[in-house]
Amino acid sequence: MAAELLPFSAVSTGPADDLGGGALEGILALLLQSLREFPGTGWDAIEVGLNCRVSPTRNVALRALEQWPRQQWPAGAIEALQRQLFQEPDDKLRARVRQLLSSSS
Q1: Do 32 and 44 meet the contact criterion of CB atoms below 8 Å apart?
Q2: How far is CA 97 from each of CA 2, 10, 44, 105, rounded to the nearest angstrom?
Q3: Residues 19-47, mean pLDDT to the nearest whole number
Q4: Which of 27, 33, 64, 82 has a CA positioned 20 to 30 A from the CA of residue 3?
Q5: Residue 3 clears pLDDT 60, i.e. is over it
């Protein structure tokens, strides 16, 4: 429902080394925090979060996916994380993505 009401595609511009964000990034981060408790639900929001220019939002998106059991990851999650390895400008986030991919093998 949030994806229908809010223009999240506006924040899905690709990872950047940006710490700040606007109201939309804040709303997305709050939504992503709650998705940790609902494995398999809200992949569209997590994928947008992984591709957000704001690194704290990408961090929350990654944390949500880290909390999900691997068998509940949706189709496309591994491919999205693999893309993230090449796009992620933050060394710490890139290391977490690498760790998550290696643990899902």
Answers
A1: no
A2: 25, 23, 18, 13
A3: 85
A4: 82
A5: no
Residue 87: CA atoms inside 13 Å, Cβ hemisphere, count? 18
13 has a pLDDT exceeding 80: no
Full-model pTM? 0.85
| Domain spans in the chain, listed from the N-terminal domain onward | 17-103
